[in-house]
Design brief:
Length: 357
């Protein structure tokens, strides 16, 4: 992109740091001298990034290093008298103890048969997916135990599950139901919380006042159901609706006391990466040092057919997890605060539904 100001202004600054500027015209030696004055390691501010970006980069490099070291370790070993087989058997038994029983799909379908609303359809679909996942986990772990004991042949799939559990990773055959980058222990705890949300919804036959959107296997389907509900209530086309976002400035206890909103839904469980959040003024602010992510307050998602003003707003993308490749969900408009929207774009500010831990 051409900038006339960069040519006409002497010592044009390329960042907020005084070190980075366009040197004055001169012989090639003067340019070499300027380059030698530049720091060996570039400050994140040189690229418009927050100092926390350097920490995030180092964490990623460290994880890559440890993943590589983990892949190089011997596959057969005995540590303090405990073999790999005994370790995997213990971990598999722990997962089996933790996961809850299936949600009663048939009874839930009967309860909701008189109200085939879009949200109820989403609930039934989520129950089907989670029940299938729970059955797959039980089947895999039971067969794995038999395989380790020599009662059945260890197939390639069981070998993969064995290796993943030994390394503390989620087996790929389990990870197909919903996107996650959590290690096995955190993934199992997260799965239990997900089941609890839908089990409570199924038992009461009433949607929760505040939805934990991260708990949906297909959050895009949930958002579409909200738009469909509003379209039916107001007899308008779904395509004419867009989202209006209002971040709550009150505690969830007050929202629970007031009940669900008249239009749209309340959602929780999102995390803000690349910025901080000013709850009082309900706007983006600079992240505190060492604060890589910030929990977001409850957000009111309200479908609307009115045109929205983009002035002073940052169109913040929302992703499944930190690895943003192919995990986009929706764009959430947030007040940009003292900074312009472009500065948050340069920072890579985004909302995440799930963390890596």
């Amino acid at each position: 992109m051409f900038s006339e100001e960069a040519i006409s202004t002497a010592f044009f600054k390329l960042s907020s740091l005084p070190t980075y500027y366009i040197p004055k015209d001169g012989p090639i030696q003067s340019y070499r001298e300027y380059i030698n004055l530049l720091p060996t390691v570039d400050d994140p501010k040189a690229f418009g990034q927050h100092p926390n970006a350097d920490i995030s980069s180092q964490i990623i490099e460290t994880r890559t290093l440890f993943d590589t070291l983990l892949s190089l370790k011997p596959q057969v070993s005995v540590t303090l008298g405990v073999s790999q087989e005994d370790k995997v058997l213990e971990m598999a038994a722990d997962v089996l103890r933790r996961i809850p029983p299936n949600i009663d799909y048939d009874n839930t379908a009967k309860l909701l048969s008189l109200d085939p609303s879009p949200l109820n359809v989403v609930l039934l679909q989520e129950i089907q997916r989670y029940n299938a996942l729970l059955e797959k986990i039980r089947f895999s772990l039971i067969n794995l135990e038999k395989g380790i004991k020599g009662l059945v042949v260890m197939s390639a799939d069981l070998e993969e599950i064995f290796t993943c559990i030994n390394d503390g990773r989620v087996p790929p055959v389990w990870a197909k139901v919903y996107a996650s980058q959590k290690p096995l222990g955190a993934w199992t705890r997260d799965l239990v919380l997900r089941i609890e949300q839908f089990e409570k919804w199924a038992l009461t036959a009433h949607p929760p006042t505040i939805f934990w959107m991260s708990g949906f296997t297909f959050p895009t389907g949930f958002l579409t159901a909200i738009l469909q509900t509003t379209a039916r209530q107001n007899s308008i086309a779904v395509d004419s609706l867009s989202w209006e976002f209002a971040v709550s400035t009150t505690d969830d206890s007050m929202l629970l006391g007031m009940g669900p909103p008249k239009d749209g839904v309340y959602i929780k469980g999102l995390f803000l990466e690349g910025a901080g959040w000013n709850k009082k003024d309900s706007c983006l602010i600079e992240a505190a040092p060492m604060q890589l992510v910030c929990p977001m307050p409850t957000i009111h998602l309200k479908p609307t057919d009115k045109k929205k003003s983009s002035k002073g707003m940052y169109p913040c993308p929302c992703y499944y997890y930190g690895n943003r490749d192919g995990s986009f969900i929706v764009t959430v408009d947030l007040k940009s605060g003292a900074e312009v929207a472009d500065s948050w774009t340069k920072r890579g500010t985004a909302l995440l539904m799930s963390l890596d831990s």
